[in-house]
Amino acid sequence: MTEIKITTEFIKLDALLKFASITNSGGEAKSLIQDGQVLVNGEICTMRGKKIRSGDTVSVSGRGEVTVC
Questions:
Q1: Scanning 14, 26, 63, 68, which has its CA 20 to 30 A from the CA of 41?
Q2: Residue 39 forms beta bridges with which residues?
Q3: What radius of gyration, in Å, describes the C-alpha atoms of the chain?
């Protein structure tokens, strides 16, 4: 598990996937999210604009897991 530090109140899910290098592009992030392959705090999330805050964990099957701090 990787820790990603943000300096703002939140980061949107699709932006986090790009920022953490889990995906190479926004289109790839959008596709993974819409296909239900992204878990936020252990639950499937299909909202690419979901606000991810400090303490949240994001996981993509086969690609990795990050915790926001």
A1: 26
A2: 44, 59
A3: 10
Give the whole-angstrom CA distance, residue 53 versus residue 55: 6
Instruction: Retrieve residue 53's tokens.
Output: 């805050």
Whole-prediction pTM value? Answer: 0.91
Read off the tokens for 38.
């992204």
One-character DSSP codes across 13-68: HHHHHHHTTSSSSHHHHHHHHHTT-EEETTEE---TTPEEETT-EEEETTTEEEEE
Which amino acid, 13?
L
pLDDT tens per residue across all 69 residues of the chain? 789 999 999 999 999 999 999 999 999 999 999 999 999 999 999 999 999 999 999 999 888 899 999
CA angle at 55 for the pair 21 and 2, rounded to the nearest 5° = 35
